Amino acid sequence: MSKFSWPIRVYHEDVDIMKIVYYANYLRFYERARTEHLRAVGFDQSDLMKNSGVMFVVKTVMLDYQQPARLNNMLLVTSETTSFRRSSFLFEQKIYRDNEQGICLNKATVTIVCVDTVSLKPCPIPEVILQKLNVEEEKF
User: Fold this and answer.
1) Cross-strand pairs, 112
2) What angle do CA 120, 80, 117 make, to 5 degrees?
3) Residue 13: DSSP 8-state
4) Is residue 68 classed as helix, strand or coil in its secondary structure?
5) What confidence tens digit (pLDDT) does each residue in 85-114 have?
């Protein structure tokens, strides 16, 4: 399993009139953390598209909102690959206020599918990515 953390500060553009993070913006925070997670292990998504002919798309998201984040909060978004199948990853993600010892504000389970850039059909995840992310295949 590969675990990654990405700090984010809440800005005016992220909040509603009550200065609470607008619910859909949590998806943006999670997306940034997953993108940086891949980048941290050596994969830029633009390069993958160009050089490997694959890209990653979100298939499903399950969110559990527990407490709100507010303007100027420092957040820590975690991203952990927990399993994979032939062409998909499962990411468990959390958002904490301040750090991982802080309050967990939000949890997400995100399924990402590897697709061919031309056909947009699912294709096998490149082995080199699986090795770098150190994930185990889900057993049935």
Assistant:
1) 58, 89
2) 10
3) G
4) coil
5) 999 989 999 999 988 888 999 999 999 999
- Which pLDDT band holds residue 140 (cuts at 50, 70, 90)? very low
Residues identified as active-site:
16
β-bridge partners, 76: 7, 96
Tokens of 3: 């675990």
Q: What domains can you pick out in the chain, each with its CATH number?
A: 2-133 (3.10.129.10)
pLDDT in tens, 37-74: 989 888 888 888 888 899 999 999 999 999 999 999 99
Q: Is the dihedral of CA 46, 38, 98, 107 positive or negative?
A: positive
Phi first, then psi, for residue 31 (nearest 5°) are -60, -45
For residue 28, the number of C-alpha atoms closer than 13 Å in the C-beta half-sphere is 12
pTM of the model: 0.88
DSSP 14: G
What phi-psi label fits residue 29: left (phi over 0), alpha (psi between -120 and 50 degrees) or beta?
alpha
């770098």: which residue's tokens? Answer: 132
Q: Is the pLDDT of residue 139 over 50?
A: no
